[in-house]
Amino acid sequence: MTPRYQAQASVLVVLGCGILPAIPLAQTSDGGGLTAALTVSESLEATRNLALTPDGTDTTLQSVTTLGFAMQSETQTQVFAFDAGLGLRASATSGDTDFGLGDRSLSLSYGLEGVRSSLGLSAAASQADVEFFRPLSDFIDGDTIIQPSSFDDLTGTGTRTDLRFAASLSMMDDAPFGLLLDASYGSTLYQDTTDPDLVDSTQFALGLDARFDISPVTQIKTGLRYSEFSDDDGTESDSVTLTAGAVFTQPAGTLGFNLSATPGDDGTQLGFAVSRQIELPDGTLGGNVGVVLTPSDETILTGGLNYSVERAAGTLSASFDHSVATAAGATGDVTTALSLQGSTALSPDVTASLRAGYARYEEADVDGVTSVADLSASVSYALSPDWSLSAGASYLLRDPSDGDRASAQTLSLTVSRLFDVRN
């Protein structure tokens, strides 16, 4: 491990050692509870073209053992959560066998809720082999925005390490005027890669938002966000984004208006959007439509739609997003993403799930578009309250405009055991 890896990994070790001894105190000081769960699973997989090369035809057989541990301590005002995962992988391709670690992850989070303020802290680290099959959902964050560098991570070999830290502080939550301060840091590191385009990078962001409650149904928001991006290819950039908006509470949901401005060396990127959120009896429906004016005098229409429903028979969620990025390192990049996920109970013990996704990424001032699509389906059977068996199939397609199309297909069979400890 290089000194750079050691220094950043040590931060997580210090966080874990510093917070873990306080768990029993948090659990008992205010009568809260402690929950913990251990998961063990064994998966047998067969994947065609695991490396996702245009002319790949080899079939790879894998045995993946996964160990997962999750713990949460909660009181009336505090929540601490700890999650860890470790995979062990054995694979065989064209007579060649390989043994090693699979995906590895560690995350810590802490939340403190007060009458007038709240604090949130989180840290996470994950490590995975670049070459192994990954669904499209791995490249979409919680807001369905594709991470710009992730499309290149689908090819080649090597190890990718992601480190993430975040903190937020809200103040004067019970007053007509409130503030929210947040900061985040991310680092992506590569080792032993065969793709020269995969280089180490870091991102940093700092934001300040102000809230003005004009009336019980009218709220004004303003914000300022600064972000930085750098990588080992010598790319360095930063950006500042100013935002202003209004939210009107209505009987069935909310109506919002938002303005944004991101100044740059070539001019200012301006954005305007209208959003609508509707609460349904068994779900939510939301959407937005807007326009972005780029420094090159280009007009880009933006928009999004999200729908989710939860019923006794199952759940369904669908989303569409077409947006222009403002963060450093990606300012002006255009992303289009669609996703559909659903599950239904075929019987009290059998559940079927389906997931489909498509994403199109266009980098600003670069001739080239990359499209990624995936489709997966699975059926799970509850053998007992603690044991489950599932079978699934997955398909992944990558289609870059400057290269050849490549696809991979996977069949899997997984058995898992849950050990749940509740206090």
CATH topology: Maltoporin, Chain A
Overall CATH architecture: Beta Barrel
> How many individual β-strands?
20
Kindly name the structural category.
mainly beta
Cα-to-Cα separation, first versus last residue? 39 Å
Tell me the strand percentage band. Answer: over 45%
CATH class: Mainly Beta
Unreliably modeled segments: 1-31, 142-146
Strand count, sense and barrel status of the largest sheet are: 20 strands, antiparallel, barrel
Quaternary state of the chains: single chain
Total number of domains:
1
Choose one word for the global shape: globular
In a few lines, what is going on in this structure?
The protein has 423 residues and is mostly beta strands. It has helices at residues 3-19, 23-28; strands spanning 33-48, 59-74, 78-93, 96-113, 117-129, 159-171, 177-191, 201-215, 218-231, 236-250, 253-264, 267-280, 283-293, 299-311, 314-324, 334-345, 350-362, 369-382, 387-400, 406-422.
